[in-house]
Amino acid sequence: MYLNCHSWFSFKYGVMKPDVLLEEARKAGVRTLALTDIHCTAGIPDFVRLAERYGVRPLAGIEFRQGARLRYIGIAKNNDGFQRLCELLSPHLLDDEALPERPPELEDVFSILPFSNAPVRLAPNQSIGIAPRDLTRLPFSPWAKRPQDLVALVPVTFRDKRDFNTHRLLRTVAKNTVVSMLPAEELALPDEIFRCEDELRRIYRDFPALIDNAERLLEQCTIAFDSTDKTQEVFGASRAQDREKLWTDTIAGVQRRYPKASPIVVARMEHELDVIERMGFISYFLINQDIVRFARSKGFFHVGRGSGANSLVAYCLGITDVDPIELDLYFERFISTARKKPPDFDIDFSWKDRDEVYRYVFTKYNERKGCHHHVAQIATYTTFQWRGAVRELGKAVGLPPEEIDALSVGDHGYYARGRPSARASSSGLDKVAQAVIRYGKHLLGMPHHLGIHAAGVLISEQPITRYTALYRPPKGFPVTQFSMLEAEDLGLHKFDLLSQRGLGHIRDAVELVNTHRSVDPPGRPTVDIHDIARFKEDPCDQGAHQGRQHHRLFLCGKPRHAHAAEEVESGRLPRARCREQYHSSRRGGERYDARVSAAAQRSRARETGTTRAIAHHARDLWRDGLSGGRTEGGAPLRGPRPGRGGYAAARHDGALP
Fold first, then answer.
1. Which residues of 149-158 are buried (b: 16+ CB within 10 A; e: fewer)?
2. Any bridge partners for residue 112, and if so which?
């Protein structure tokens, strides 16, 4: 009979996590429970997922308000009803459209109106909720003669008095006032707690039909989510066409990336394509390929990284530029039939270009599906941390700024995890300051409001509103009300489109180089940052490339790939030397750090126009430094430290002109 329960996703109103709410329901012997947060659906996925372990049957709903005034409560009969509730709320959160004063007649939705706002007539599937505080007025109302239209409405927001005090402080923070000035209508009643069935029967003893009506209403409702893949199923016209496109484009990519493809490359390609098809990720790859192709058509630079760089198919489709054959990268780290974890491409774009990529994705993949939202960014939960919690509570109780500053300073910069400073822990604080510290700890980790994931975008087969309501932050793209963890539990695979400022600088540099190459001397080839094979053949980059190979071997401990074995067999990297360098790097890394730093600084020296002779001179000086060499002035030459340029450091020490 609990039709109206709040979790802490009723931001700055509720105080209980969804699992804490379920635990309290189990203690009270509650068998069915509807979570109806205020204008929010963030807690629904976890609430539904966790309910079974607490022996509670979960239901989903939304509480609609105008300011502090309750308008109505919507409870979904099933998943279709939940979608209709999300579609009712989303325009209000997306475009600030006014909510209807009366609940619309929605199929598969029960609407409950408060007794204080009861209309003259009720539509089908609408009822009047009678809270315990309304029982004294009900006998004098015309509704007393219509018990079939009434249900017991017992809101749940707290566990105990401490929760109520926390709620009062949260409402004070939300209204940006002080506790003594908070209007009474902003607060829930202190008796909004779970009660056992016998106690509820005693409270409603004069109107027992109200409890029976509420139970019958709940029995007609259900909600369930599974973890099957809900990402857009087909990229083109059909699954067969998608499969053909993936194979065709991958084979073309193999011919481009590997002009003389070995049997190892072909076998790896066929293995990856087989796993991708069996796991149902064909559309995921094709959508990523489509996004990258759009970026290239606009001249945008991108970098594909993360575990997706372990895929030969991704390399051949142009999503990444990392050769997994050369670097001996395992595809199973990205996709494996032994685990259900979805694939994850991290694609970087310039901060100047990413918004246009977003617009392309939102426009294309929404238009293909009609008027519903099928694309959305992923939310994050901005939570109270120690400094913010103490400052907000300090203002709520009227502490002076100097005392708030003193209380909010943390111990060893670790205040975000609730370790108070000596000042906050002292016994000399007055009662008000002690209360701020006590309730500040209670707020730690509690959601404050919704944020935006740095890169995550969802593209779903069904409308996104089937799983969540949407809101629009100032940036302008629709955002879900749950995080990437809930999205993964629901089977919604995210596309990570990140912003990277460095790519904008690289683009500017490449444009300058290409502009000069087109005029003096004429006919020189332009620079393509995705032409990895050409970079490897550049004689000016051979030293740095060899350093990178040694770096990889030290991390591996022994050569695992045929290319590494050839290095050892040819004598360019003796086995004993490899083992020595590897173990040295594990013990402390002086030799290893010095060699890697020297290789990096030689590369920087060439890029800044320093002559090759000077770069080699710097290399020799640093190499001598490893064995205790000295400069021309007789001073000891120290090995390089990470982050300090080899050439610049040598000039600073007087070793180079």
1. ebbbbbbbbb
2. 73, 127
What's the confidence (pLDDT) of residue 97? 94
**Number of CB atoms found within 10 A of residue 556's CB:** 14
Tell me the two tokens of residue 502.
Answer: 């460095």
Question: What is the number of other CB atoms lying within 10 angstroms of the CB of residue 306?
Answer: 16
Q: Are 59 and 89 in contact (CB under 8 A)?
A: no
- Closest CA relative to residue 282, chosen from 314, 258, 306, 307: 314
Measured CA to CA in angstroms, residue 223 lies from 264, 311, 399, 489, 578 at distances of: 49, 38, 46, 15, 59
Phi, psi of 322 (to 5 degrees): -105, 125
| Spatial distance between the Cα atoms of 369 and 588, rounded to a whole number of angstroms | 57
Cα–Cα distance list, 1 to 39, 51, 153 (Å) = 21, 16, 8
Q: What is the pTM of this model?
A: 0.78
Judge contact between 323 and 532, C-beta under 8 A: yes
d(CA 95, CA 650): 60
Amino acid sitting at position 544: A
pLDDT for res 176: 94
Residue-wise pLDDT for 366-385, tens only, equals 887 666 799 999 999 999 98
Alpha-helix runs per DSSP H in 176-299: 197-203, 209-219, 239-257, 263-279, 282-297
Please report where in the chains the tokens 């142009």 appear, as a residue.
318
Angle (nearest 5°) at CA 580 between 578 and 585: 95
Residues near 534 by beta carbon (within 8 Å), at least 6 away in sequence: 528
Spatial distance between the Cα atoms of 248 and 511, rounded to a whole number of angstroms = 32
| Cβ–Cβ < 8 Å for 129, 3 | yes
Note the pLDDT of residue 340.
74
pLDDT in tens, 464-515: 999 999 999 987 899 999 999 999 999 999 999 998 888 878 878 887 877 7
Q: What is the dihedral of CA 92, 97, 98, 104, to 10 degrees?
A: -70
The alpha-helical segments, DSSP class H, found in 6-134 are 18-27, 44-50, 79-95
Find how far residue 369's CA is from the centre of its chain: 25
pLDDT tens digits, 205-263 = 999 999 999 999 999 999 999 989 899 999 998 999 999 999 999 999 999 999 989 99
Could you tell me the end-to-end alpha-carbon distance of the chain, in angstroms, rounded to an integer? 84
Give SS3 for 254: helix
Q: Is the omega angle on the peptide bond into residue 463 within 30 degrees of 0, that is, cis?
A: no
CA-angle at 50, arms to 47 and 53, nearest 5°: 140
Kindly report the number of other CB atoms within 10 A of residue 461's CB atom: 16
Listed in order, strand segments (DSSP E) in 374-503 are 375-383, 447-459, 494-499
- Its sign, for the CA torsion 649, 650, 653, 656, is negative
d(CA 408, CA 393): 10
- Encode pLDDT of 388-442 as tens digits: 899 999 999 999 998 888 888 755 544 444 455 556 666 678 889 889 989 998 9
CA atoms within 13 A on the CB side of 445: 6
Contact call for residues 158 and 179 (beta carbons, < 8 A): no
Chain CA centroid to CA 98, Å: 30
pLDDT of residue 414: 43
CA nearest neighbour of 398 among 183, 188, 181? 181
The string of pLDDT tens digits covering residues 579-623 is 444 344 444 444 434 444 554 454 444 444 433 443 344 344 334
Query: What are φ and ψ of residue 233, in 5° steps?
Result: -75, -35
